[in-house]
Amino acid sequence: MERIESFKVNHLVLEPGLYVSRRDRKEGVCVTTFDLRITAPNKEPVIDMPALHTIEHLGATFLRNSAEKENIVYFGPMGCRTGCYLLVFGEKTSEEIYPLVMEMCEFILNFEGDIPGAAPEQCGNWSEQSLPMAKYYIRKYKKALEENKNFVYLP
Question: Which among 26, 16, 25, 20 has a CA at the least distance from the CA of 6?
Answer without folding.
Answer: 20
